[in-house]
Amino acid sequence: MSTDTSHADRVNVLIVGAGLSGICVALRLLKAGITDFRILEKAPGPGGVWRYNTYPGSACDVKAYTYSFSFALNRDWTQMYATQQEILAYAEGLYREHGLYSKSIFDTEVRSYDYDDAEATWTVTAAHTTYIADILVDATGVLHRPKVPHIAGRSRFTGAAFHSAEWDHSVDLRGKRVAVIGTGASAVQILPEIAKYAAHVNVFQRTPQWVLPRANRPLSSAERFLYRWFPTTQRIQRYLNYWIHELVVVAFFHPPLMAVFGAVSKRFLARQVSDPRLRAALTPDYRPGCKRFLITSEFYPALQRPNVRLVTDHISEFVESGLRTADGTVHELDAVVYCTGFRTDERVALHHVAGRNGALLSEVWRDGMEAHLGTGVTGFPNFFLMMGPNSGSGHQSILFAIEVQASYIVKCIQHMRRKGWQRIEVDPGAQRTFNEFVGSRLSGSVWNSGGCTSWFLDEAGRNRQVWPGWSVAYWWRLRRPVDKHFVAAPRQSPTADLLGSER
Q1: What is the domain extent for residue 178?
Q2: What is the pTM of this model?
Q3: Gap between the Cα atoms of 397 and 9, Å rounded
């Protein structure tokens, strides 16, 4: 791709994405004394997924005191599980407190990344802006591309239809006949809310889910007082919660132990659903943990409201008045809400990411995403990913991995400066070794062997999503950059051969 860069702005570090991962990188840069950076964001403000997911009931499914950065604890949570509005307010507060608005350009959707081999820089092109950056950090996140199923006849339907992440607030669902397609994390939050005022809701389930109770409650005035004036109490609670969840990883890698969680989930189902036919329809036939556990205490009661019906027949097509299922039934509808998740098979939002020698990331990843430590990709120098392949956790708050990666990336940048390197790139052998380790460790995990189809696995059946083990082990691996993991070129000789050195 040819780009005119004569009027491009130059910056040392460019961050694409102003969600929590982009914010964390920016804050870590500031702490390191690196102020020459910019943030590009397609939305009108910061917050990422928490700015877009404004559907009814939108909230976090991990406890609030683990859903803020360890170096910037939020003292203002009002309940055990934070709402979308509270998390967005937290992100905006960090932006204001640290002066990030002055370093950000909003309403700017990036079109392409192009690496310049001769200059060892990245040209980042947006609709009305072009930047040249020494270091490029993609922090566009995992949950940025809504996945909408292809259902025949969509154009025939006369009602409203939208994805949960693109909620159409102009559509009033009060007194309407609504379809909720899917029974995943967003559906179990949306249904209890819209069932209160919709005339009728059909919930279309493809696969039942393992559900665990969500013990939400308002935080007491005493708790909030302690968190604000004695922050150590919040840190202790956060620390205990972290290790309780960390121990769960043992079961993910010893699938028979998941029977304990299955028993808890079945007992919870039996306690909340008395109808044996409905209970049978809601009972999964795969091992617990194979798919993400759903944390909710409101979904099962909502399904049993007189104006709600669970539909397990396959959807065949749209018709003018609604949806037809495989049994021939036409479900009359006024609106359809897709609760069908996101495309997680591409961790970079762009199709055009051209690295060394013009290699396209889409081609490099044609047979599956691979990275080193979830942060760097061979062939793409001076390029870092936030939440790249195999860096997620199935048992901890995502903010833990975000903090670990942001600190590691900034340490890599500092390391480049100390060494006098102009460019840094993941060594092919290091990336290969890492991915062989990941594949070997995940092969016997419940995600790979639990008998379900989930977003953890790609089309080839490879797990490209999860870190294979303890999150503390991930922190240990990323505690500092290791020279032998990279090939590099010195600043004083931009055209020199790539050099590798072992610490």
Answers
A1: 146-209+292-341
A2: 0.94
A3: 36
